[in-house]
Amino acid sequence: MTPDRLRQIVTSKPASRYSFRDPERPVLRSPKGLSKVVVDLISEQKDEPAWMRRIRHEGLRHFLRLPLPPFGPDLSRLKFDELYFYLKPSERKAQTWDDVPPEIQRTFNRLQLPKYEQEFLAGVGAQYDSENIYHHVLPQLRKQGVIFSDVETAVRERPDLVKKYFGKLVPSSDNKFAALNTAVWSGGSFIYVPPHVHVELPLQAYFRINASRMGQFERTLIIADEGSFVHYVEGCSAPTYQASALHSAVVEVYAERSAHVRYTTLQNWSKNVYNLVTKRARAAANATVEWVDFNLGSGVTMKYPAVLLTGRGARADILSMAYAGKHQHQDAGARVLHLAPETSSVITSKSVSYGGGRTTFRGRLRVAPNAADCRSQISCQALILDRHSASDTFPTLEVDNASAVVAHEASVAKISDAQMFYAGTRGIPSKQAAALVVNGFFEPLIKELPMEYAVEMNRLIEMEMVGAVG
Rounded to an integer, what distance in angstroms lies between the CA atom of residue 236 and that of residue 298? Predict the structure, then answer.
């Protein structure tokens, strides 16, 4: 079977339950473009202390002076002056789902978030455009001292923690989009887990962009104190508009001594969204940080979750999946810095490109001179479904300690005629056979998800495959 024939197997794609849109009825919308007026408007809406407003204005100064990234996808069509940087969907945050405004409640019901909360989550946050409209955590976790709120609430109620950690891993001078987020951040999640507390069920936040020409800039700050455990899951979606939208989040994760943090992202933005985020974690002695990153949707993604291994025996485990179709460029990867002895890391990347899509793995591994006896393994596997698509790998390895053991492997493959013929002899139609190959390719990553999320991810892949090869 020729590659062109493989692309022609399917002619249409079913509608996604994520692609609907609601009427736009915000109670407040900032003027277009970014300025001091917009920054002050956001700060006033949140009734912030002067110290946070100063942080915002510092971010604005860095944003105005910093250039766009000199690498990666073309961002020349991203017009900041045409975007709305703040949109307030309702007057107040709800304490129960019944308090959520009816039209927004219908949105999250269609996304099944209330159902998921009842069945298998320890806490839920829901963000609609610029604001969190709902946040809740199980009462027994509150009694144990677990905090799960939006960052605005943490600024008011736990300024000591916010001042200590906010912007320390991702300063506003780090890059243009980190500076942008610092200036106009709104919503997101703040999590603090006390020493030796294990949050057995996941905490989840869902981020929904509904408005056209919208920028969403949540800020997430997770602090897992000594010996604690937490699994945080974020989901993302947006309807499709002709005009571009921007999602530019900043995530900072702190795993203190012997703590364990798992951060899972299930991204399904529409193809008009630029997804340009900065995610970084610090792992202290004997701590573990896991990034589990699934990238579907968006027109352009630039995302490289990073872990700084700062304590002896710290560990990083990064799983990255990217799926790019027509008019998509998924530029994803990972960064790990071994800054202490006896640290270890595993980076696993899998990508599929079809219909002219492009996937890129962009990774950086550094072993510092004092990081003796480190171990790292990097594996990049790409599956290309037709001759119109592409995949790139850009690894950077800097090893400054001779005792380190570092392994890197990369491979590129396609769906072979032999696979399709074998499936045909078993009575499996071509469409189903191609989908089975892709599902099998991603299966080692998907099995790392809790059952409910694995089912959802398989459903998303199946939906994407209908538009790819069947």
Answer: 10
Of 14-23, 124-133, 357-366, 401-410, the least confident: 14-23
Residue type, 318: I
Give the residue-averaged pLDDT of 383-411.
93
In 374-388, which positions are buried (b, 16+ CB within 10 angstroms) versus exposed (e)? bbbebebbbbbbbee
- Amino acid letter for position 147: I
96-to-117, 124, 125, 137, 336 alpha-carbon distances in Å: 12, 11, 11, 11, 40
Output the pLDDT for position 91: 56
Which CB contacts under 8 angstroms, 24+ apart, belong to 22-27? 22/103, 22/104, 22/106, 22/107, 22/210, 23/103, 24/210, 24/211, 24/212, 25/89, 25/103, 26/87, 26/88, 26/89, 26/129, 26/211, 27/88, 27/89, 27/90, 27/91
Strands 87-88 and 123-128, sheet pairing: unpaired
| The pLDDT of residue 278 is above 90 | yes
- The alpha helices in 66-193, defined as continuous H runs, are 102-110, 113-120, 139-143, 151-157, 159-165, 176-184
Asked if residue 19 has pLDDT above 50, the reply is: no
What pLDDT, on a 0 to 100 scale, did the predictor assign at position 250?
Answer: 97
Measured CA to CA, the distance from residue 312 to residue 236 in angstroms comes to 35
Average pLDDT on 345-353 reads 94
Tokens standing for residue 392: 């790139």
* Cβ pair 212, 32 in contact under 8 A: no
Other Cβ atoms less than 10 A from the Cβ of 144: the count is 14
235 neighbors 108 (Cβ within 8 angstroms):
no
d(CA 435, CA 388): 19
The helix (H) or strand (E) run that includes residue 7 is helix 3-8
Q: What SS3 class is residue 407?
A: strand
SS3 168: coil
pLDDT in tens, 112-147: 655 665 565 677 777 777 777 677 788 898 999 999
Calculate the CA dihedral of residues 23, 29, 35, 38 and round it to 10 degrees: -140
pTM, to two decimals: 0.88
Q: Half-sphere exposure of residue 411, counting CA atoms within 13 Å on the CB side? A: 8
Give me the torsion for CA of 419, 320, 190, 39, rounded to 10°: -110
**Residue 254 CB: number of other CB atoms within 10 A?**
24
**What mean pLDDT value characterizes the chain?**
85
